[in-house]
Amino acid sequence: MDIVIASIALVFVFPLLLVVGILIRLQDGGRAVYAQKRYGQNGRTFKCYKLRSMVANADERLQEILATNPAARAEWEETQKFVNDPRITPLGHFIRKTSIDELPQLWNILRGDMSLVGPRPIVENEIAKYGEFYRDYCAVRPGLTGLWQVEGRSNTTYEERVQLDVKYTRTRTFTGDFMIMLRTVPAVLLSRGAR
């Protein structure tokens, strides 16, 4: 199912990816696609692809913000996100709200790094937030969509996100995955919990 749906979807969204990629390049000359090391099934690392929604030097800007703004550092440590992230470009706000930035992960699905449905892929410093539940996270491939995305996304706490991931990995079924995919459509169209 992953390979068939991802292949068909990639054919249909390729023109959109091309146009948005050109717009990203035109805004600041930086790369259109951003690759970041994420942790997947069995703790294996892979390059997770996204359309770049932030300024070209986002990692350096993050370190600067964390070093100079204690309130921002506390927010980042709690949620791994900023409510008002100053690194996001105007075009980036749009592609995040519409989840267009996630579409290159269809390639990750074809490579076998990810599935259509599963927990969101995490970075190294998030492993500690999962604690004993990291084992549950590693039991499945991370997903393009999942229970967290349809249950509130950024409107949930990080602890709630972990519990949703655990619930998914312990109760997943083919029918459940199909229902999550169906629920993803209105969640994306209504931009529920998107930041």
From TrEMBL:
The chain crosses the membrane at residues 6-26. GO terms for molecular function: phosphotransferase activity, for other substituted phosphate groups. One of its GO terms (cellular component) is plasma membrane. It comes from the Bacteria. Belongs to the bacterial sugar transferase family. Residues 1-189 form the Bacterial sugar transferase domain. Keywords: Cell membrane, Exopolysaccharide synthesis, Membrane, Transferase, Transmembrane, Transmembrane helix. It is found in: Cell membrane. One of its GO terms (biological process) is polysaccharide biosynthetic process. This is Sugar transferase. InterPro entries: Bact_transf. The keyword Ubl conjugation does not apply.
